[in-house]
Amino acid sequence: MCELFCFNSKEPHKLNECLQCFYKHSEEHPNGWGLANLDSKNLKIDKEPVKASSSEHLKEILSNPIISKNVFAHIRLATIGEIIPLNCHPFHKIDKNKRSWILIHNGTIFDYPKLDEYKNKELGDTDSERILLYIIDKINKFEEEKGSLSTIKERFNLLYETIKDLSKNNKLNIMIYDGDLTYIHTNMKNGLYYIKSNEGFTIASTPITENNDWNTVEYNKLYGLIDGNIIFKSEKHENEYIETEEDERLVQEYIKALNQKNKNNTEIF
């Protein structure tokens, strides 16, 4: 699968050390990396379909101070979608009211037919990109029917209902940013971990430091963060994801086919 990282705070902080620790996990997640500075005036996304520890571009980025209030980072172990730039996270889309949405995802959508229509609309071929397109359509429809912009609470409520529905029989560890709120969700026990400090929230798929201050994010709930504080917390839904042997078999078959395809492409060129 993939690993996710998020930092959310009221004040900018230097994040190089945290990010370097996070990207060390790329030995087991070699199919791409991504980094998004989510500060609204300086939105910037870098990503490549190469192992983070082998990327000269990422090395150059991390050699300079990375100072931000809001950051997403991602390392990819491909399960759905080829190993190409368009399939690297974070994904970025803009809704009809010019609001930027950023998404990173760890998991697999095994069964959700509503996403199928986005296979011909997405730029790449991942289920993660389809999730973002689906969410934006939901937001666009809501705001069209309302006749005005949504409030952050309305967006939170809408995303909770959408994510709750999406998470049934699917693995949905996900982080989303809409320009105001950072949304955090896992539907697995021990799916995400966090540290809360005076600096803000640091959240990751696995602890990135060896100290004992990491706590598990409560699963099956959606959280909305602003300035290092939990602004909204949903009720708990019932769609916990527990990996089955069939799920694992499907994932391993796909990874094997993808690796063979990449090997053939390498041999051709």
Lay out the secondary structure.
Elements: E1 3-14, H1 16-23, E2 33-37, E3 44-48, H2 56-62, E4 67-75, E5 91-94, E6 100-106, H3 127-146, H4 152-166, E7 173-177, E8 182-186, E9 193-197, E10 200-204, E11 215-216, E12 221-226, E13 229-233, H5 245-268
Antiparallel strand pairs: 1-4, 1-10, 2-3, 2-4, 5-6, 6-7, 7-8, 8-12, 9-10, 9-11, 12-13
Structure description:
Helices cover 28% and strands 28% of the residues. It has 269 residues and is of the alpha+beta class. The strands form 2 sheets. It has a 7-stranded antiparallel sheet, covered by helices on one side. A hairpin with a 5-residue loop joins strand 5 (91-94) and strand 6 (100-106). The longest helix is centred in the last third of the chain and has 24 residues, at 245-268. Mean pLDDT is 92; it is low at 265-269.
The gyration radius over C-alpha positions equals: 18 Å
The topology string of helices and strands comes to EHEEHEEEHHEEEEEEEH
Main sheet: strand order:
3-2-4-1-10-9-11
Helix content: 25-40%
Q: Which structural class best describes the helix and strand composition?
A: alpha+beta
Low-pLDDT runs? 265-269
